Amino acid sequence: MLVLVLLQSTLFATVAYASKQHGFSTAVVRLENMLLFESRLIDEIRQYITDTDGASEDLRRYVEDFEHNILRPGFADLAYHARHPVGAYRLVKRLSQTDSRILKHAQLLTGVGVARDGDDVIKISELPTEEDLRMSALALARLQDIYHLDLRSLTRGQLVMLSRQSDGTVVKQKRLSRVEPTFTLEAEDTVYIGDMAYNEEDYLNAVLWYLITLDLTEGKEMADITDDTANDSAPGRVQVLVKLGDALTKLQQHQRALPFYNEALQLEPNNQEIKSKVVESERQVTLQGDVTVKMGKLLQGAIPYQQDYENLCYRSALQNQAPSSRLSCTFVRTSPQLYLSPAKMEVLHETSPEIALYHDVISDQEAAMMRELALKELKRSPVVDKNGKAFLSNFRVSETGWLHDNTTELISKLSRRVSYITGLNTEYPSAESFQVVNYGLGGLYVPHVDYFEEDQVRHMKRPDNRILTFLIYLSEVEAGGATVFPQINLIVPAVKNAALMFRDMKRSGDFEPLSMHAGCPVLIGSKWIANKWILDRGNEFRRPCGLTPEE
Fold first, then answer.
1. In angstroms, what CA-CA distances link 526 with 79, 259, 364, 497?
2. Helix locations, 320-453, DSSP H
3. 228: which residues sit within 8 A by CB, 6+ positions away?
4. Helix (H, G, I), strand (E, B) or coil at 515
């Protein structure tokens, strides 16, 4: 478990919440597996319908819904639905609204997923929940916020980054999607995302999503928009106008809220609640005067000011490379085992803290085996508070599985390989087991350090502390997911099969606060990493104190 020391994102107003141990919003791999399972099930249902002609209407509708939403013409990569943020949100939404009884019936008829000889079974009862849908909505809001995504493009499934020029003009800067997906967000989706942001007291982002909702409904017949009896999930225009006014009111932007309340009142002139909102807004405008200019410019740009680590995350997706050009690469032989096949070290930061990226540390096959071994162990990743207590939080959206050195010979061999590269003892109790992590939709971990503070050590009664982090990237990440060090302005893109190594403590035993780092939200892809933390206990002679107090 990593140690949380800095909680600073605008989309994380609520510090912590109770949640289940795993879910479809906290690990992309769960969505990928569910989608592959559904694909097999659909094939068998089609064959059953052809052979028997006895399928129920519910089964037929289920097949038609899958074909309409998933099996798009010219879009062969099913797993991309789970790795694309809009596709993943739509997938969670569809599955959370699917009747599990239909899938159970389909399983019994086709035999797909039924246990045979100890095989794993897809538990239909574990479909995405309302909590998964809520977290997926917040993930989309978070991604749009941090990466400055154009909202209009996002509703069409396109990831287009915006930038602000020196004169304040906002322009389309970079397109991230490698393919042109056909994922779309409807008005009912955007207003739902706005509602979730509003509930988190993130009123500025709520305003943006309500505005795009009005944009999506522009030009439609009023009966289609306001008559909720026709479509219970479709937002009524009056409802959205009031929500928008309420969000602006929360931001003390009464002058901007007033036109939306007035438009809602014109549509429903007898609505007393809206009348009272108009009267109160007019009163506040009279009291405050014209105080909306600065916020108005900000809303027009639709790019809220970001904090340091969020700026680094934005730059990582925009540049897709580290900002420093003064890097050196070398072959290193830190142990006799590396003489014939030296490690490929790229120095990222020479001074305190020492940071390096080692390329080709593991093979594709080894990475795949680590992912497969950890899959059965995955549980929601916790964070640790100042009193050493673990809790679940939306400051960290991922799932973790621990692989001990004696799990298989492969894991034992990889642990020894880390020892060869670092020159340190990686055997228990001088190092922790591999912590394998899969990130969820928009998965991230806000700035934190890996070492344990003195109060935490005391409460946890630990006899040791972490002196070095060895982080292996087990998968490719198409966009986002970089590791950033805010205090030294360093960006490290996720490079498959490479390992990021940095010091958590100085040779003197003092903490290395500049090692504070963060995992940027994953924009496109399924990010897997494996952490190996090496401890001070048992490494006293392998990493002795330096000659000066600073060391």
1. 10, 43, 15, 14
2. 364-375, 409-422
3. 234, 236, 239
4. helix
Tens-of-pLDDT digits for all 551 residues of the chain? 444 433 333 333 333 334 467 789 999 999 999 888 888 888 888 888 888 776 788 888 888 888 888 876 556 678 888 999 999 999 999 989 888 888 777 777 777 665 444 444 555 557 899 999 999 999 999 999 999 999 999 999 999 999 877 666 677 778 887 666 778 999 999 999 999 999 999 999 999 999 999 999 875 543 333 333 334 455 789 999 999 999 999 999 999 999 999 999 999 999 999 999 999 999 999 887 655 444 433 333 333 334 689 999 999 998 765 445 566 789 999 999 999 999 999 999 988 899 999 999 999 999 999 999 999 999 999 998 888 889 998 889 999 999 999 999 999 999 999 999 999 999 999 999 999 999 999 999 999 999 999 888 888 888 899 999 999 999 999 999 999 999 999 999 999 999 999 999 998 889 999 999 999 999 999 999 999 999 999 898 888 777 776 66
Non-local CB neighbours of 530 within 8 Å, separated by 6+ positions: 370, 374, 403, 434, 435, 436, 437, 471, 472, 474
Q: Are 352 and 503 in contact (CB under 8 A)?
A: yes
Closest CA to 92 of 158, 162, 140: 140
How far CA 337 is from CA of 309, 418, 420, 425, in Å, comes to 38, 11, 7, 14
Candidates 463, 425, 429; CA nearest to 542 is: 425
> Which residue carries 């013409």 as its tokens?
73
Cβ-contact 397, 26 below 8 angstroms: yes
Q: What span, in angstroms and rounded, lies between the C-alpha atoms of 4 and 382?
A: 10
Read off the DSSP letter of residue 438: E
Single-letter residue type at 275:
K
Write out the E strands in 100-231. 160-164, 170-175
Cβ count within 10 A of residue 108: 11
Tokens standing for residue 360: 């080709």
**Separation between Cα atoms, residue 134 and residue 93, nearest integer Å:** 9
511 DSSP assignment: B
Q: Which helix (H) or strand (E) holds 226?
A: helix 222-226
Rounded-to-integer distance, Cα 349 and Cα 302, Å: 35
Contact 348, 493 (CB under 8 A): no
- Buried b vs exposed e over 123-161: b needs ≥16 C-beta within 10 Å? ebeebbbebbbbbbbbbbbbbbbbbbbbbebbbebbbbb
The rounded distance, in Å, linking the Cα atoms of 309 and 477 is 19
| Of 314, 310, 68, 309, the residue nearest 176 (C-alpha) | 314
**481 in helix, strand or coil?**
coil
471: closest CA among 416, 512, 519, 505? 519
Nearest Cα to Cα of residue 74 among 186, 185, 184, 180? 180
Runs of H (alpha helix) within 302-355: 308-319
Measure the N-to-C terminal CA separation of the chain; round to a whole number of Å.
27
**Residue closest to 144 by CA, chosen among 214, 205, 80, 213:** 205
Q: How many whole angstroms separate alpha carbon 496 and alpha carbon 363?
A: 9
